[in-house]
Design goal:
The chain is built from 9 helices and 15 strands. The protein is of the alpha+beta class and 322 residues long. The structure holds acetyl coenzyme *A (ACO).
Length: 322
């Protein structure tokens, strides 16, 4: 079987920084509440004429600058997003065109906050099958475009961002066994409405913004992720104390702390992006990993567990060695 190697990474966020005090002018909330209930200090929002495709391109450019990789032989582009500039054409096709990758196939994958991890699983599979050699995986979202700024229980959470990785065929692969799974029965607990007015007969709020049952998602995330961390470690022949860094989707710092509490995994060994960027959906894992690598925290040979979870409800993960 051909081996897959994650060899380069980059990230991008918009320039406009949004601090917690901004929400104090909009809704009944405080900086103290936001920080203590979510961990978030700040996040970045796109301008009106700035979209997910722009962040995708910036994240890839950051990766190219930092790792001096070439893109002209990329043969597949996978963009994970739930906030494309438009439903069609895909963001992946826009990236293919703007960054000039003539040989690349291109499509978007759709798994909300688990989407980047699904992209990595897919890229590994394409390389293992021998059909592709160099796959660009991007996780990018502009949740500020689908935020209900009058809903104080959700609007403070979301930020915009993108992260990109290159996954190549190599004699020395560094992406281990993967997990994927879903609890589709909980779809109505976290959605953005589209054409249909119901899910499984349950009426939806038809405002095209994120609607969530925060408490249910919180509980599911803690239980499911704690369980799947153990499954994923075992699948890779490791115990949790052999994992150097855990990179879960950054939805809420309290979710991360509760998962650590549940599993005994040290919270100091978590790479998060929630505090400085908010919940950036598909981008949260690659942003946290990118910063962990750039800051020198993640060293060559470190074992890093990636585990995305979110809308669907769905999850996916893997263990890689940097
Ligand atoms: N400011 C002040 N008070 C608030 C705010 C706010 N922004 N939001 C809620 N409150 C109030 C509530 O009204 C409630 O008041 P009450 O007791 O008088 O009714 C009180 O604070 C506590 O509310 P809870 O809902 O119990 O707050 P909780 O601690 O559960 O935090 C939160 C809410 C942050 C939403 C949390 O449940 C959470 O993070 N859930 C997970 C959400 C998530 O991960 N979503 C993923 C979406 S992204 C994607 O997948 C695309």
């Amino acid at each position: 079987m051909n081996q897959a190697r994650l060899s380069a990474i980059g990230m991008a966020v918009p320039e406009k920084q949004v601090v917690n005090s901004f929400y104090e002018t909009l809704i009944d909330t405080t900086d103290e509440w936001i920080q203590s209930r979510t961990g978030i200090k700040t996040r970045y929002h796109t301008e009106q004429d700035e979209f997910t495709s722009h962040l995708c391109v910036k994240a890839v450019q950051d990766m190219v600058e930092r790792f001096q990789v070439t893109l002209d032989d990329v043969d597949m582009i996978i963009v994970s997003t739930v906030t494309p500039d438009q439903p069609m054409p895909s963001m992946a096709c826009q990236v293919q065109h703007r960054l000039n990758m003539p040989r690349a196939g291109a499509f978007d994958a759709y798994a909300a906050c688990a989407g980047f991890s699904y992209g990595v699983v897919l890229a590994k599979g394409l390389i293992a099958a021998g059909t592709h050699q160099k796959v660009l995986v991007i996780g990018a979202d502009t949740l500020s475009k689908v935020t209900d700024f009058s809903d104080r229980t959700s609007c403070v959470l979301f930020g915009d961002g993108a992260g990109a990785v290159l996954i190549e065929a190599s004699e020395t692969g560094n992406i281990g066994d993967c997990i994927t799974g879903a609890n589709g029965e909980s779809g109505p607990d976290l959605y953005i409405s589209g054409f249909a007015e119901t899910i499984d007969g349950q009426p939806l709020k038809m405002n095209r913004t994120i609607v969530q049952n925060g408490k249910k998602v919180f509980k599911w995330a803690v239980t499911k992720v704690a369980e799947q961390m153990r499954v994923l470690a075992e699948k890779n022949g490791l115990s949790l104390d052999q994992i150097d860094w855990f990179v879960p989707h950054s939805a809420n710092l309290r979710i991360i702390e509760a998962i650590c509490n549940e599993t005994g995994f040290p919270v100091e060994k978590v790479l998060e992006s929630i505090v400085d960027y908010g919940n950036t959906s598909s981008a949260s894992i690659p942003i946290a990993l990118s910063n962990g690598i750039q800051s020198g925290k993640v060293k060559k040979g470190d074992k890093v567990m990636l585990l995305g979870f979110g809308g669907g409800l769905a999850f996916a993960g893997t263990v890689m060695e940097w």
